[in-house]
Amino acid sequence: MNSTMKVERFLSLPVLGVLSVMLFLCYTTIFIFLDDWVGLRTSPGTLNSFFFTLFASLSLFSFFLCVLTDPGHVPPSFYPDVESTNAKDNAEQKKCDKCFGYKPPRTHHCRVCRKCVLKMDHHCLWINNCVGYWNYKAFFDFILYATIASVYSTVLFISCVLQKEWGQIKENSLKFFYVMYGTMVVGLTLTLLSLTGWHIYLILHNMTTIEYYEGNRAKWLAAKSGQSYRHPYNNGAYKNITLILGPTMLKWLCPTSVSHLKDGVSFPTIRDNS
């Protein structure tokens, strides 16, 4: 991807909207609520300002990686190893009827990007990019750090509200601002907590969002025929985490640590461990 295309990724209303919300949240949290609560020049103010800025910066950095990192596309030379795959795998490695190329396992065609994306999770409007094999870790770290920063902001906001003497404040505009801000930050926090919890569940089961819904249908069809279904890439919680976030626990929250990722066209399955 050339530099012009990278810049164009940010020329999107949803992306600019996310950046605006993040910057607004950072400014108001530090320079309004934290300053009003304990003061920025005090030790508690300096300490809280440092930690909040740290999580907000990590969130912003991960967000930039999500937007700029290519999620991964099928190599032009890819051809399925038909002899070593059974009928079920072979069906998954069929040709894409839009790209007219072979699709590796877990690959799906994105109608927005108009390409087949390796281990596609979903197309995310808010990063103007697909979430796939190469940027999923950055996406997870982004929502995790954003959740921590949002929870932190909510705690500082509530602390500021509780110590304020509202009986002496006559400006209705200030009260309205606090109500609107509280509604926004609490709503954002709950949304991010739900999103982070959802992706923790997916990581523990080594699933993508697409595979989750495909798995529900497969379970229903298997139950109708008196059989059971298990997600083929679920290798156990810890192994699933290491396959996605990396083998070193200290690097799980580092969005640039992706040396454990291979080519994105083959994945260990339950059969490989049996």
List the helices and strands and how they pair.
Elements: H1 3-9, H2 13-37, H3 43-68, H4 87-92, E1 108-110, E2 115-117, E3 122-124, E4 129-131, H5 136-163, H6 172-204, H7 209-224, H8 237-245, H9 270-273
Antiparallel strand pairs: 1-2, 3-4
Helix pairs in contact: 2-3, 2-5, 3-5, 5-6
Helix-strand topology string: HHHHEEEEHHHHH
Instruction: Write down the overall mean pLDDT.
Output: 91
Structural class: mainly alpha
Beta-strand residue percentage: under 5%
Separate helix tally: 9
Q: Order of strands side by side in the largest beta sheet?
A: 1-2
Question: Can you count the beta strands?
Answer: 4
Shape: elongated
Terminal Cα span? 40 Å
Low-confidence stretches: none
**Helix coverage percent:** 55-70%
Rg, please?
23 Å
Main sheet record: 2 strands, antiparallel
In short:
This protein has 9 helices and 4 strands, in the order ααααββββααααα. Helix content is 56%, strand content 4%.
Written description of the protein model:
The chain has 274 residues and is mostly helical. Helices cover 56% and strands 4% of the residues. It has nine helices and four strands. It has helices at residues 3-9, 13-37, 43-68, 87-92, 136-163, 172-204, 209-224, 237-245, 270-273; strands at residues 108-110, 115-117, 122-124, 129-131. A two-stranded antiparallel ribbon has the order 1-2. Strand 1 (108-110) and strand 2 form a beta hairpin. Helix 2 runs parallel beside helix 5 and helix 3 (43-68) runs antiparallel to helix 5. The longest helix is centred in the last third of the chain and has 33 residues, at 172-204. The chain is elongated. It starts with a helix and ends with a helix. The mean pLDDT is 91.
